[in-house]
Every structure is written in structure tokens, then in C-alpha cells.
Amino acid sequence: MKIFFTFLFLVILSPFAYADGPPIFVIGQEVQSIHDYMEATKRNADQPDGFMVYTAINDIRGLWEPVDQGAGINYADQLLKEYPKISVIQIGLYMRYMLKETLNGSFDKTIDQLGEWIKKTDKQVYLRIGYEFDNLENQYNPEDYKQAYRYIVDRLRSRDISNIDFVWHTIAWRDKDWPAYDPLKWYPGDEYIDWVGISFFDSKQDKERIKAAEIAHQINKPLMIAESSPFFQYTNDEKLEWMNKLFEYMKTYRVNFLSYINVNWDHLPMFKNQKWGDSRLQIEPVIMSKWLEEIKEFKR
């Protein structure tokens, strides 16, 4: 009987052990917040492996030149200059209202520029194409999204870029007024996806996150926390509870890639009226201490 239960335990857990290589941790999402975290942890052995930035398919700003759309300055080249030893870059590619233009070739030049920039970084780059595609605010038509996703992947692959992984990033959450959670409507196909990414903001809703993990298992792809930050959590106790749920989820579903957004949301013009709170870890010793404990365990 003991042998049976040991076997059953392994069967339950092993399907989620997909990702090869060591665990990856990146910090975001704008220059100042990344710098502040790196400074606060410069004597810590478990500093981030890299950083996360954002750019848009129509102009690719934020990579070789700075841009601020109301969420802080994005400037990947500056970060590469300041932190040359990092090994990973995670990029969110914004495409709202631009799917059809992508498909008619309007952005071929910028896609090619993106590919050349990625190749020259000599870092492993994880590209989230049309991140949170099933967030209703993005208004991504499923068929247009799938075609645009494949178009970008095919064009980048044709340029022989060896240091890129493609991330299919579902919001893994739903508002009460949204239709049933069904990210597979936007699924571009197994051959176009290297990772399944999810967002982890609202720790009180886990139904969709569990479903996303099950989908990753079904399509045999590793699972990434592509964006995470405590959502409407203001007290230390609330933030610690959020953190516990984050790492519990990661352990349960064998998440091998964590991206954390280390910003004061309430001070960013784009988010100041949404009352998300302040997710900067380094401003509260009890929060930072617990975080570093969890990261050390995660990186083992």
C-alpha cells in the first residue's frame, strides 16, 4: 500500500516538472525600480538573473531608446550597460489595436529591428507576444491574435535568432462580468509556443491560475509567472499572505520562471487612480527578508 501511494504522489506531481535548466528570476518593470532592487540586493547571492521590459510592435521604443508611457521609463540598453552580467531579458510586446497592421506587413521593419536587437544582446530573451491576450481590455480578436502571433514568430525564426523563447501569456484571471475563462481560443499552436505565461496579481482568485497550469500540462509546455505583484495589498500581513500564495502555487505547479514587478503603483500616472498599492520589496525589512528566503529556496 505504501508503494502505491508513493507512486500516486509522483504521478500527480511529475507532469508539471517540464522546464530544463536552473530556475530563473527577473525583476521589473522600469529603470528606477529595477535599479533600486538591484542596489538593495547587491550583496545577496540570489540577485535577479535579468530584468523585464516592455515595448510596442509599432516602434520598438524602450529597447535602444528610453520611453515612458506613464508606467516609468523603459530603457533596456541602459539596463544592459549597468548590469552586463545578467543573462536573461523578458520582454512584453504590446500589440493592442495593431493586429491587422501586423498581418498586412506594416510592422515588418520593426519586427526585423526587434530581431536584430535580440540577437545582439547575447542574452536569452523571452518574448511575450501580445501579453495578456485574453484580458478583455486588450480587445484581441482571437483569430487575428493567433495569426499575428504566428506571423511574428515565423518572421523572427526566419532571421536565424538562436537566443529567443516565445511566451504565450494568459491573464489567468477573470472579472465577474467576463465570459468563462477559455484561453485556448487564442492558442496559436504547439510549434509556436515555448512557454505558457500567466499573471499573478489577485491572490484571492486561483481557479483560472489552476486551469492555466493544467493547460500547460496538456500542451507539454513549461509554466512562467510572467507578471506578478501584490494587488490591492497595503499592509505587511496582506503582502506576506500574497507572497505565501505565490510561492505555494509555484511549488505546486513546478513554476521555473518568476517575474516580479517591484514598483510603487500608486505613484505611476498610468495606475495612480487604480489603488494597486506599493509593491517595492526593499522598503519593508520584514517583506524583503521573507522574499529573499523564498527566492533562495526557489533558486536551489
- Shape, principal axes of CA atoms: globular
Largest sheet: 8 strands, parallel, barrel
* Quaternary organization: single chain
Strand proportion, as a percent range, falls in: 15-25%
Report on this structure:
- The chain has a single domain, classed as Glycosidases (TIM Barrel, Alpha-Beta Barrel).
- The protein is α/β, with parallel strands linked by helices and 300 residues long.
- It has nine helices and ten strands.
- The two termini are 32 Å apart.
- 36% of the residues lie in helices and 18% in strands.
- The longest helix is centred in the last third of the chain and has 17 residues, at 236-252.
- The strands form two sheets. An eight-stranded parallel beta barrel has the order 1-2-5-6-7-8-9-10, surrounded by four helices. A two-stranded antiparallel ribbon has the order 3-4.
In short:
The chain has 300 residues and is of the alpha/beta class. It contains nine helices and ten strands. An eight-stranded parallel barrel has the order 1-2-5-6-7-8-9-10, surrounded by four helices. It has a two-stranded antiparallel sheet with strand order 3-4.
Layout of SSEs?
Blueprint: H1 2-13, E1 24-28, H2 31-40, E2 50-56, E3 67-68, E4 73-74, H3 76-82, E5 88-94, H4 99-103, H5 108-121, E6 124-129, H6 142-157, E7 164-170, E8 195-200, H7 207-218, E9 223-228, H8 236-252, E10 257-261, H9 285-298
Parallel strand pairs: 1-2, 1-10, 2-5, 5-6, 6-7, 7-8, 8-9, 9-10
Antiparallel strand pairs: 3-4
Helix pairs in contact: 8-9
